[in-house]
Amino acid sequence: MRIPFESAAVGTDTPWQQLPELMLPAYGQTWAMVGIVMALVISLGGLMGIALYNTDRQGLFPRARLHAVLSWIANMGRSLPFLVLMAAIIPFTKWVTGTTIGIAAAAVPMTIAGIPFFARLVQNALNDLPRHNLAVGLVTGGSAAQIIGTTQIREALPALASAITLNTISMIEYSAIAGTIGAGGIGYLAVTYGYQRFDMNVMLATIVVLILTVQIVQFLGDRIARALARP
Amino acid sequence: MIEIKDLHKHYDTAQGRIEVLKGIDLSVPEGSITAVVGPSGAGKSTLSHCISLLEKPSSGQILVDGKDLGALSGRALRAERRAIGTIFQNSALLSRLSVAENVALPLRNLGVVHHEMQQRVAQLLDRVGLLEKANAYPGQLSGGQRQRVGIARALALRPRLLLSDEATSGLDPESTHQVLGLLDSLRSDLGLSIILITHEMDVVRHVADEVAQLAGGRIAEHGALHELVASPGSATGEKLLPLRAEDLPAGFDYAVTVAYRKDRVDPGWISRLGIEHGIAVALLGGAVEAHHEGTLGRVRLGVRGTSPQDLVRLLDGWGLHADPGSLARNNRELVEANA
């Protein structure tokens, strides 16, 4: 590939040949971050979503007050823009991870932002199930765990797959924002090279990689959701 | 034997207490179908939820073989729940489970071992005639087939009572017929007690042995179906077998509703009125329905040439019931009185 003379001379743009060397580890870091965060978000946010649904009126154990508290927490977690949340909880992040920069430090605000988001997605997925599912679970002698497992989670799997896809894409976006606090990953690359050093090549490559990544994640998510659906 | 004794259910709301069931007494013998009918708001679905043990009665008992299931909760309730099988409106199958898995659900919830479960599921699907659909998903079945799977699921734990909560509403006539045929055969083959909660009088007329009319949270009328239909003054009887009769034509003195069961009636009774007794008769309307206990009929007549009292006495001697309350009213008044 031909390198434009001007940019090579100014020295701001990373040569195209060197991009893979720069971007591959960063891409790996992005996925490591998103992977860790999604594992926490799916388990904790999933639990919160199930609790939100089942403490509501049509749920397995309706508790109006507990539901209101959970709902309030979920709304609170979702009301701050990610950048603000990230900055606001730095003391907490430091207490948990011992540092305020790097992958571990970014994972904390990403998880905290992701949990209420996923909880609401799970709640919505469960709300879309037929109302009679609970009655079916009860009259067939199901325990609470069996009812939640079979008549709720299993029945909602296609919608949950879509929720995970949506959440993963959000987390990829958050990981890029987390780049501003030195989280690593391609967001960090875009900020340090693209934004601070006006490195157009890195900026363009980052954009292309992010677009392709999101397209692929969405495509796979749709495929999985479709495979889980029944006639 | 299933007995419901003095069942009350109320809900406390911000606006105060709402009493939905105000003392329901109902017993369903083995091998019989009792239909619970009534307008919407009468308490049918609350009663259904109490019987299927989805809601706890405020007071009163639900006795299955002498054991009060209404008072149970938690683990004890889960264990005893198997005595009552419930069939829901729209079958309520789980969409991501195959037909066989849906039927196996109660067995799996109770931890029945795998090969026993498979055997029982095959047996149940065979019973409802859907063995070849075992691996299909509910979305691939017709409404009637889905409801038969729902019945198989309700039977999985060998219940003593089968509760059908509007199980045929929304089904086409052919599917309704299949489902009712199945309930009918289950009643006789397995000696099940069946409670049919429904608003469809056609359904009731086809399969029920007894009918309980629910109104305002109480049982307004309860009796054997053929007796209700054969009582010309019964409002439930009129709903079960409506006459759609014409008004009394000029030249006749009064109209009367006569009800009968075929096994005790001479079919030629209308002509006998004229030939043997010189009474002029106009046939204003009639309905005759085959029932598994015999043919039921209700006829509305215009009459001239005899007094109402003499006519009632005469018909009574032939095993026909004329309703004195229906005398000298035109059809519109009769319908209004029954509504």
Protein described:
Chain A has helices at residues 5-10, 19-55, 64-79, 82-88, 90-97, 103-127, 132-139, 144-154, 157-178, 185-195, 200-228. With 231 residues, chain A is mainly α. Chain A has a single domain, classed as MetI-like (MetI-like fold), CATH 1.10.3720. The longest helix of chain A is centred in the N-terminal third of the chain and has 37 residues, at 19-55. Chain A starts with a helix and ends with a helix. Chain B folds into two domains: 2-223, P-loop containing nucleotide triphosphate hydrolases (Rossmann fold, 3-Layer(aba) Sandwich); 230-338, Alpha-Beta Plaits (2-Layer Sandwich). Chain B has helices spanning 44-51, 74-80, 99-109, 114-127, 143-155, 173-190, 201-207, 225-229, 235-240, 269-277, 308-317, 331-338, and strands spanning 2-13, 16-28, 32-37, 59-64, 67-68, 84-87, 161-165, 193-197, 210-215, 218-224, 254-261, 280-291, 294-304, 321-322. In chain B, helix 4 (114-127) crosses helix 5 and helix 5 runs parallel beside helix 6 (173-190). The longest helix of chain B is centred in the middle third of the chain and has 18 residues, at 173-190. In chain B, 43% of the residues are buried. At the A-B interface, helix 7 and helix 8 of A face strand 6 and helix 3 of B.
Strand percentage of chain B:
25-35%
Q: Which chains make the largest contact?
A: A-B, 20 and 31 residues
Dominant shape of chain B: elongated
Radius of gyration of chain B: 23 Å
How would you sum up the major sheet of chain A? none
CATH class descriptor of chain A? Mainly Alpha
Number of strands of chain A: 0
Order of helices and strands of chain B: EEEHEEHEHHHEHEHEEHHEHEEHEH
Shape, principal axes of CA atoms of chain A = elongated
Number of helices of chain B: 12
Low-confidence stretches of chain B: 328-332, 334-339
Give unreliable regions of chain A as ranges: none
Order of neighbouring strands in the sheet with most strands of chain B: 6-7-8-3-9-10
Mean pLDDT of chain B: 86
